[in-house]
Amino acid sequence: MRTLLALAAAATLAAPATAQVFGFERVWKTGGFANPESVLYVPGLDAFLVSSINEGVPLDEDGDGFISLLSLEGDIVTSRFAEGLDGPKGMAATGDRLYVSDINDLVEIDLATGEVLARYAVEGAQFLNDVTIGPDGTVLVSDSRTGRIHALEGGAMTVWMEGEPLARGLNGLMAEDDRLLALVGDVLWAIDWQTREASEVANGFGGGDGLVPDGRGGYVLTQWPGRIFHLDAEGEVTVISDTRLMGINSADPGYAPQAGLFAIPTFFDNGVLAFRWAQ
């Protein structure tokens, strides 16, 4: 597989709103967050949710983490939609429930009120990270330190998968009808729902963070230090943004399909950057 590198990192999606880079254009950027780690589009709200770790480090159990509600126009609707979390990271929603990874707990939140309804302790967890929901409704959460995928089934947490290749830097998860995609270090893997067998989809992500569909049969993926990748339907990987030298991170992305918006939290830069396919 061939990886195409950006020739001018300074002219990336961090550039003015009219800039176009590899078929994408910036739409808006919103500040005012506090170490935002993950963005999730929720159809029922027609808005993005943004998880902020806030002060301290991602593993501090300090209770100051929160989730904000962000409109598709880039306006913060509610800065503290849900709060009282420690280090909220990945999120996934189904029906009227939101599930958030919170260091060593999976937290269930009411999407109507932002109220924390339940905390599911994950035995042996060290760094719970991304969350996704399988086609059968099973909630899955990755642990980047232990290389395990845990599942919430019947109100209890179990180990859904562990071992190779997950031990090489497990992070982002994305459920599809016929497979689970797992971003592990440099490689994107496809895991069969029934057999748990993993096959390589693409590589070249250098410690990837999260991924979302691109609306055209491919994917947009991020690398936390500041790179954003596009993986097209033919398997070609392109670096569409590189802001590492600017200190602008690229954490766990969100995607609003009807609006065609991709939203990337920039962590230490305390913002969310939105872009779309160039017209």
Entry keywords:
mainly beta, five-stranded mixed sheet, five-stranded antiparallel sheet, 53% strand, WD40/YVTN_repeat-like_dom_sf, signal, ATP-binding protein
Describe how the helices and strands are arranged.
Layout: E1 3-4, E2 20-21, E3 24-31, E4 36-42, E5 47-52, E6 65-70, E7 76-85, E8 88-94, E9 97-102, E10 105-110, E11 116-121, E12 128-133, E13 139-143, E14 148-153, E15 156-161, E16 170-175, E17 180-184, E18 187-191, E19 198-203, E20 208-213, E21 219-223, E22 227-231, E23 237-242, E24 254-256, E25 261-265, E26 271-277
Parallel strand pairs: 1-23
Antiparallel strand pairs: 2-3, 3-26, 4-5, 5-6, 6-7, 8-9, 9-10, 10-11, 12-13, 13-14, 14-15, 16-17, 17-18, 18-19, 20-21, 21-22, 22-23, 24-25, 25-26
Organism: Marinicauda algicola
InterPro entries: WD40/YVTN_repeat-like_dom_sf
Protein name: ATP-binding protein
Characterization of the model:
This is ATP-binding protein. Keywords: Signal. It comes from Marinicauda algicola. Residues 1-19 form the signal peptide. The chain is built from no helices and 26 strands. It has a domain at 1-31 and 218-279. A hairpin with a 5-residue loop joins strand 10 and strand 11 (116-121). Residues 1-12 and 14-21 have low confidence and may be disordered. With 279 residues, it is an all-beta fold. The chain has a 5-stranded mixed β-sheet with strand order 1-23-22-21-20, with no helix packed on it.
